């Protein structure tokens, strides 16, 4: 079998080989076209086509041949290549003998790179890297959002605590003022009282003088009315009053 020198073709396992074999000026369309495996310089027929059946495929469906009589070109497609497919192939037509149109030397290798050739990452590796990157970005975004929510919750708790503490202080001050007003707001009917104090209640004690208009028994209670303007400004200071009566001599009738 005489023909051209084989053309080197390299493919990875799982790839597809597509070969075109023009036959312009060499044969007529009625001649049978073959895709052969070279064995002992002879054609081991893999798939072929007639002029009235221009497209055929192998039994396993991996090899397909098509004869385009318009462009006078035979096309061969081999899919799902395997390492054991590595061999020498050729297109041919039969005219008393096999006449080769194009001869190739196919090398199907395993792995992700050609022997001795450095290539970039595969699509699977790129997808894996993209997935990892997206997962990392998502985790970072979620962490930032959770941190912001925790800070907002902490600030809200502090603000509520300060407001509650201020409310307690105001409530305690009002209760102390009410207690002071009740302690100083009574006097005996029929008596008058006058409160004397220094310019600043916080600097010293205050005094109230009572003028009793009618004689009373020492056992009777004595009350004193104090005007609101005379009340001490600072309810935290406690004021005391000491009232003394001089006992009048008893009459003969008593």
UniProtKB/TrEMBL annotation:
Superkingdom assignment: Eukaryota
Matching InterPro entries: Ig-like_dom_sf, Ig-like_fold, Ig_sub, Ig_V-set, Immune_rcpt_domain
Keyword Membrane belongs to the record: yes
Pfam families: V-set
Keywords: Disulfide bond, Immunoglobulin domain, Membrane, Signal, Transmembrane, Transmembrane helix
Transmembrane segments: 139-165
Cellular component, GO, one term: cell surface
Transferase among keywords: no
GO molecular function, one term: signaling receptor activity
Residue ranges of the region described as Disordered: 174-239
Every Immunoglobulin domain range: 6-109
Span of domain Immunoglobulin V-set: 16-93
Biased composition (Basic and acidic residues): 174-184, 193-203
PANTHER family named in the record: TREM-LIKE TRANSCRIPT PROTEIN, TRIGGERING RECEPTOR EXPRESSED ON MYELOID CELLS 2-RELATED
Name this protein carries in UniProt: CLM3 protein
Species whose genome carries this gene: Prunella fulvescens
